[in-house]
Amino acid sequence: MTRPAWATCRVCGGRFAPRRAGGVLQRYCSRRCKGSWIASRVRIRRYRKSLKGKAVKKREHRRYLERHRDRVYRLMNKQRQRVKDFIDSFKIKCVKCGYDRCTAALHFHRVRGRQHVRLSVARQRLWSRKRIVAEIEKCEVRCANCHAEVTWPHTVRY
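The structure assignment produced for this chain is given below.
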C-alpha cells in the first residue's frame, strides 16, 4: 500500500506529508492538532456522560417521589406551616398607617439592598428562619394600600 503524497489535517485543514506511525497513517499535521482533537473528543464524551447522569438522577428522583409521595408532601407542608407561623409570629403593622388586622394584607417593602424574592415565595421554597429574618430586616412592613401608593410611580408604564 502506497502512502498518499499529501493529506489534510482533521483539525486545522492544513496540508501535510503523512508518515506512517505504528502501521497507521498520520491524520494530523502536528502534535498540537492531535492534542486539541483528542481533548475535544474527551470533552464531548464527558459532557454526554454528564447529561446521562442528570437524566438518571432525574428519573430516580421521580421514582422516589412516586413511592414516597405522601411522606414527602406531608413533610413539605409541615415545614411550610412552620415558616408561615414563624413569619406570622412577628408583631408587624404598617409603618405608615398602623394597620395590623390581617397579615395577608401586609407587604414587605424592600428599603435596603436588593430584593431576592417576596416572602410568600420564600415560604413556598422552604427558606430557613435565619434567611427569612435577614430578608425581613431589609424591609419595611406596609399594608397593601400604602405599598401601592409607594410603588405606583415605579410600576406605571405609559
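Interim note for the steering committee: The radius of gyration is 31 Å. The chain has a mean pLDDT of 79.
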